[in-house]
Amino acid sequence: MSPxxxxxxxxxxxxxxxxxxxxxxxxxxYARHYGGQFLLRIEDTDKARxxxxxxxxxxxxxxxLGLDWDEEVVHQGANLARHQADVRRLLDANxxxxxxxxxxxxxxxxxxxxxxxxxxxxxxxxxxxxxxDVERRIASGMPFVVRFRxxxxxxxxxxxxxxxxxxxxxxxxxxxxxxxxxxxxxxxxLAVVSDDIAMRITVVMRGDDHVSxxxxxxxLYEALGAGVPKFAHLPMIHGxxxxxxxxRHGATAVGDYEHMGILPDAMLxxxxxxxxxxxxxxxxxxxxxxxxxxxxxxxxxxAAIFDxxxxxxxxxxxxxxxxxxxxxxRLIPLILSAGLATDEDLVARRDWLYQLIExxxxxxxxxxxxxxxxxxYFIETVEYDAEAVAKGWKDREATQTILRASRDTLASAPRWxxxxxxxxxxxxxxxxxxxxxxIFQPLRIALTGVAASPGIFDVLVLLGRERSLARIxxxxxxxxx
Length: 481
Ligand code: GLU
What we know:
Number of domains: 4
CATH class of the largest domain: Alpha Beta
Bound molecules: glutamic acid
Number of helices: 21
Number of strands: 12
């Protein structure tokens, strides 16, 4: 059996939506797991709505996520001649016919059906025109569309997600559906089938919203004498309120998550769980693990919930799993643009930077979080968080005593390492007769300005002796008035 061929076929009419990225990922995972090809087709036939910028956004999204594709990108708009030739084949095989009804006439037919309380279905009046009449109309330049003649019977397929789906042909759409517009451009269903045949696609995996198109497409495959691919219709993505995911729920563009400090691996992991489960309790996975575990058996038909809190949690997991060096490549531009350091500074202090990242990555949910938490280690003068001060330095007198004593102890420490500093400060706590935390917390605020940070000894080492002592002095000056 030859390997499967899959494709992702976005219409470039906006940004890369998270739902689109999820569909792309599942197609990609299928191809990489089962061994096959994953192709990319830009469905740019709608000239009025398709833009270069949107096409670029799709490529950018793929690049950021680290998804690749096989073979050349296919641009649907370039295949117009073949689409038209396929329509001609259907006309020649008498599986389609020209329809000269004007939109006014069709509106009348629709209104009449409504008045009768029936669903509109094209009454095939143009299919009954005599050949000579059809030829005369064509010769006179009368505009026409081409309709596919719906056969009798039932159209079914074994969906990889939903199992058997069947449609009675008489219930599909409005009867003989249009495949070519009066301006000779193809309708979506025809263009997709024509391209999928040409690209030798064997598995069509896409959103649930296309289920109603599938019987039409199957009929077109059969009429064009092509093998019908397998279909997998993925569940819709909903917001936490159970409604279809939209901008109301927050960002829906993949690019927005990049700017929120989400790691691509975390995004992929999160997207993978929107409609698929590897089974067991496994949730956090690297991309290679997802490739290994992917299976169509794990696909779900239930709508998936896009939960931002879960994405942030997932991102936290991936931040912890990623090496400081890898995180640094993403963090450095953010640190530079926040004005916290210069490029040369970061190059000169590379080991220090990695150490800082190592300590912060386990406490952060986003890259931005890390940058925010990193600020106290870069800036010259600490900014004190009002709430931290109100709570941690409540008793000013006592705080001054503790900070002064800590300063003396630290200043005389034999070495400036966590191993050397820890016993010194713990001994001091014992001497004063207070819990160590009563020293660490006021000290933490003096050193970082905030109430939460890595362990106090790590903070001291990151800041270095001189800076740490200067910060305690500055805190004491502030507390004195
Ligand atoms: N361009 C269609 C869409 O974006 C593709 C549907 C399909 O995969 O067939 O929804």
